[in-house]
Amino acid sequence: MEAQPILTSPFAASLGMWIGGLLTLMILSFLYRDNPFYKFAEHLFVGISAAYWMVVGFWTTLIPNLIARLWPSHMGGILPSATANKPELMYVIPLIFGLLMLARLSPKASWLSRWAMAFVIGFAAGTNFTRYLQSDFVSQIHSSIAPIYSPGMSVMGTIGNVFSNLVIFAGLLGALIYFYFSKEHKGVFGRTARFGIWVLMAAFGATFGYTVMARISLLTGRMDFLIKWIGGIFT
Amino acid sequence: MADEQVKLTLVEKLGRVDRRIIFLLMGVAVLIPLLIHYTTTIPASLIVQDLFDKVESLPPGSKVLISFDYGPATEPENQPMATSITRHCFEKGLRIYMISLWATGPRQATELIDGIITPEFPGKVYGIDWIDLGFKAGGQGLINTLLSDFTAMYTTDVNGRAIAEFPMMAGIKSLRAFDLIYCVGSGQPGNKEWIQFAGDPGRIPVGGGTTAVMAPQLYPYYPKQTVGLLGGLQGAAEYEAALMVKYPKYKTMSRVASEKMGPQVSAHLVIAAFIILGNVTYLVERRRQKKRQ
To answer: For residue B242, which of B9, B34, B99, B46 has the smallest C-alpha distance?
Structure first.
């Protein structure tokens, strides 16, 4: 077993519970009204989150994927498995781009960071464009054009499948027509657009319902933690 | 007349109830089921059952990549999903590869290792049956690279040991080596990115679980682009139910998601009651205003 338990001693576990419990109460105190305890917990959370992401990113990505590839012989005390590797000089390029990004810290040299930003944005735009086009456009159209009737299913399965496909077909058509503004929404066209609004409303309602469920789940998690914390004090 | 005025005043008061009263009632609605251990069991829906059946259909030794793309903030929803899939994979004799696109993910993986793998599956050997590869930055860029060259990004496991040391890493050249990618996600990068950057271009089966907030955005990918999806705590509870049907021993073990569905029921009843109350008071007040005019 390689992974080590996070809280190894009972004292550390107890301390962690107390800190977590008190910070939870500080955050929940906002429900009554804004107060300094809430502000303290909020600022602490933002600061620790930023620091945590930076430290983890440094040790899990920057060290093994960049530093260890450029100077493997210097990794003895940090990453012993990398010391036998040969330096990969190609990684000087991402190193330079990374340093250019840090130029933003100097007002005079901040323009240099645009080269790195241009690379990042260009890469992201290029890869995202093709993937979104394939997954969210072409594949979604393909998924929407489903046959109403599919053979080889049970009677109940066929009824459910046909109903489901009809709902998708009618809902898609109605929603698309609602967003078509080159023709006035009158007559059959207008009624179809109105049906499209109802479909959109149902979708928004479902989304709201799911959001409520998510928030209650998180509240349940915090309550469960508080019960364990307070229960632990009295046992 | 006097009675009517009293009733109307009461309606007005109900319409202007202090939001802190609502918060308090919500807190009580969540707290009581937790204290009395009120649990509900929800049968698996089609979208959850399909994912379960996919895992069930994999032969022993198949490779399952689990991506921990969440953090402590959504742990109540996401952790039961990771627990269920881990139990299921090990019951089937599948090999688990843990990675994370979120820096907070490895902490959740460690919680799973300490809470589930070590106590429940002591016979499973690190490096042979399961491995923790840790976090890498890059989001969809990382997935893009892993699709063509896995070892370009993952040179070591989470503890800094070279991946060549582990037998289960032999033959892992790209994401195409995996039989299933299971993302436990709560945002971006997460389930959507795994479908877009790995599942669709690589023709790799992708499934997983996500927070309820994200679920409606991901349902359109089912069934052609994702094999199944656990939507929020309910999805996790449904997967637990499917696991219990197939492996009855889990009926007596910890069922975190099912246990937390009790508060969901009572809290939703409170919300529904307030929605009805809000609408009734609105209609009554509107009627009063019309009468005055």
So the answer is: B46
Note whether B219 and B283 are same-domain residues.
no
Residues of B in contact with A222 (CB under 8 A): 76
Opening angle at CA B176, ends B174 and B182, nearest 5:
105
Decide if B222 contacts B228 (C-beta within 8 A). Answer: yes
Model confidence pLDDT, tens digit, residues B161-187: 889 899 999 999 999 999 999 999 999
Q: Within 10 Å of residue A53's Cβ, how many Cβ atoms?
A: 16
Same-domain pairing of B82 and B214: yes
> Per-residue pLDDT tens for A151-195?
878 888 888 888 988 998 899 999 999 999 998 989 999 999 999
Residue B280 domain-assigned? yes
Q: How many domains is chain B built from?
A: 2
Nearest to B196 among A3, A52, A135 (CB): A135
Residues from chain B that touch A208, judged by Cβ atoms under 8 A, are: none
Residue B182 structural domain: 46-254
- Same domain for B83 and B227, yes or no, is yes
The torsion defined by the Cα of A168, A170, A172 and A173, in degrees rounded to 10, comes to 160
Give the E-state strand segments of chain B in sequence order. Answer: 63-69, 95-100, 130-135, 180-185, 206-210, 228-231
B129/B191 same-domain check = yes
Give ipTM to 2 decimals: 0.86
Cβ-Cβ contacts under 8 Å for B2 (sequence gap 6 or more): none
Inter-chain residue contact A56 with B103, CB threshold 8 Å: yes
Report phi then psi at B173, rounded to 5: -95, -35
* B190 in the same domain as B89: yes
State the nearest Cα–Cα gap between A65 and chain B, in angstroms: 7
Whether residue A177 contacts residue A196, with contact meaning beta carbons closer than 8 Å, is answered with yes
What does the alpha-carbon distance between residue A130 and residue A128 come to, in Å, rounded to a whole number? Answer: 6
Same domain? B80 vs B216: yes
Residue recorded with tokens 């927070």: B211
Q: What are residue A47's phi and psi, to 5 degrees?
A: -65, -45
Contact yes or no for A218 and B27 at CB 8 A: no
Compute CA A144 distance to the chain's CA centroid, rounded to the nearest angstrom: 26
Size of interface A-B (CB pairs under 8 A): 171
